[in-house]
Amino acid sequence: MLNRLINFLGIELSEASHTEKLVSGVGGFLAIYLIFVVSHLFLGDDAYLIVTSMGAATILLFAVPHGPLSQPWPLFGGNLISALIGVSCAQWIPDIFVAAALAVGLSVSAMYYLKCIHPPGGATALAAVISGPSVASLGYMYVITPVLFNVMLIFIIAVSFNAMFKWRRYPAALAADTNNRATSASISHAGIEHALKQMDAFVDVGEEDLNRIYDLAREFDKQQSGQGLHKKNAE
Question: DSSP for 71-86?
Fold first, then answer.
């Protein structure tokens, strides 16, 4: 009964190390602090308009830097496309309720089709509609400042900060263990692609991490089998 409740609630039982948890928190602190300081120097009070979506992006880039939703194309594409859609809805749809809902809905579909799903993009689109006259006066410049400006800033911070820890390089393609992964029994790209098509859903785990999990699980099973055989022989 307890296991069913845990599965229903989606509680993640696998534990990351205390170091990983603390590093993620420190990275998030530095990212938002620097975004606030630097953005305010260049953009004044308008810098605060997009910091909320950058808070969400910070969780992805510093807590799950190897996840598909955290990579550069989702980060840039998801925010910029959503900003463009949000501004268009704000300018062309007079009903703010419809405009806000449509901005988010269209952004979700656009990100899906363009392979740049990035949850903070929804907040970026919504902010373009509901943030009031200060954003409305920016028009499509909202896409450049503050959105593009802050996205570039958080990207630079994420690359620089994660580079200090060899197990969590960002982007994921730079991960230190990518070239060390055993390839003899790894799952092929075609196999992964086929499996995802059969599932017909977006899965938030990268191909490299998936193969890494597979290799580590196989190694664990081999060790367990070896220990079991050794115990049996001893008996």
Answer: SHHHHHHHHHHHHHHH
Domain boundaries, the chain: 19-174, 189-234
- Up-side HSE of residue 197: CA atoms within 13 Å toward CB? 6
Residue 203: helix, strand or coil by DSSP?
Answer: coil
pLDDT tens, the chain, 235 aa long: 777 776 777 666 666 788 888 999 999 999 999 888 877 776 676 666 666 789 999 999 999 898 899 999 999 999 999 999 999 999 999 999 999 999 999 999 999 999 999 999 999 999 999 988 878 888 999 999 889 988 999 999 999 999 998 888 899 888 745 445 444 456 666 666 666 566 565 555 655 666 666 666 666 666 666 666 555 556 6
DSSP label at 175?
-
Question: What are the CA-CA distances from residue 43 to residues 2, 36, 40, 50, 157 (Å)?
Answer: 51, 10, 5, 11, 18
Say how far apart CA 55 and CA 69 lie, in whole Å. Answer: 14
Rounded to a whole number, what is the largest CA-CA distance in the chain? 80
Which amino acid, residue 221?
Answer: D
* Cβ proximity of 61 and 168 under 8 Å: no
Residue position matching structure tokens 């570039």: 152
Report which DSSP code applies to 13.
Answer: -
Sign of CA dihedral 206, 210, 215, 216: positive
Tokens of 27: 């990275």
**35's tokens:** 């975004």
User: Considering the entire predicted model, what is its pTM?
Assistant: 0.77
- DSSP character string of 53-65: HHHHHHHHHHHST
